[in-house]
Amino acid sequence: MNGVRGRDTRRTESRLALVASPTPAAQQAAATFAQRYEFVPLDEADIVIALGGDGFLLQTLHTMLDRHRIKPVFGMNLGTVGFLMNEWRMDALDERLARARRFSVTPLRMEAETVDGESFSSAAINEVSLLRETRQTAWIEVSVDGRVVLPELVCDGVLAATAAGSTAYNLSAQGPILPLGSGLVALTPISAFRPRRWRGAILPESAKISFRVLDPVKRPVSAVADQREVRDVALVRVGIDRATCLSLLFDPDHALDDRITMEQFAV
């Protein structure tokens, strides 16, 4: 995650940091980039250029959250899907940044308590998911704003997703796609056995969601905030973290809001 200083450089209007996935393609691209543009360490940058896939972009955002150094990120896809990334191109970086559209993303905050009484807190840009750890189905009580809405959800798991993350794991679990800026959170079951007909809910961002594991010893459950896992949880609280705001930059013809909208028509 250290910034890369370039050689034989041309200056852009903003101070840029360069981070890259450890994959060979991303590392090769970063080496080439460093020969054409000047980069500064992450803490000194105005904008972060991230080379890799969606997973690496999430890792970059979490690193900035951990270090309390939140900067706008312009990602370029050198991964597999790259839904949160722009097209990889070497040329005209300064022009692309000048024309880029900025999107604000507010993450979820997960507060988890384990069977042993330990407490953990983590941000989730895409989703918070609860998943069974063994072959035994999970038994989970679901509450919204202090009211029990599902006394016993028997399932492989359940997740809460932001609009930005609604096209990721949430969509794979047959959850709804939420337009960016809709002010909504998706609550989606994962292979629900009971109640059989419950397909999830769409909640306002102000909602406070609680998951209580009903038999955490016999039927252990883990909680995952994006890529960060807490095992053997007993209680998980999830809500939008209004104190935190992340910024993603996109080419105007590749903007995140339009891509999320068009996913509703993908066949």
Automatic annotation (TrEMBL):
Binding-site list for NAD(+): D54, G55, N126, E127, D156, A164, T167, A168, Y169, N170, L171, S172
EC number assigned by the record: 2.7.1.23
Family: Belongs to the NAD kinase family.
InterPro entries, A to Z: ATP-NAD_kinase_N (IPR017438), ATP-NAD_kinase_PpnK-typ_C (IPR017437), NAD/diacylglycerol_kinase_sf (IPR016064), NADK (IPR002504)
Main location: cytoplasm
Keyword terms of this UniProt record: ATP-binding, Cytoplasm, Kinase, NAD, NADP, Nucleotide-binding, Transferase
Single GO MF descriptor: NAD+ kinase activity
Naturally occurring in which organism (per UniProt): Sphingomonas morindae
Subcellular location: Cytoplasm
Source taxonomy: Bacteria, Pseudomonadati, Pseudomonadota, Alphaproteobacteria, Sphingomonadales
Function: Involved in the regulation of the intracellular balance of NAD and NADP, and is a key enzyme in the biosynthesis of NADP. Catalyzes specifically the phosphorylation on 2'-hydroxyl of the adenosine moiety of NAD to yield NADP.
Origin: domain of life: Bacteria
Catalytic activity: NAD(+) + ATP = ADP + NADP(+) + H(+)
Active site annotation, chain numbering: D54 (proton acceptor)
Cofactor(s) for this UniProt protein: a divalent metal cation
Designated name of the protein: NAD kinase
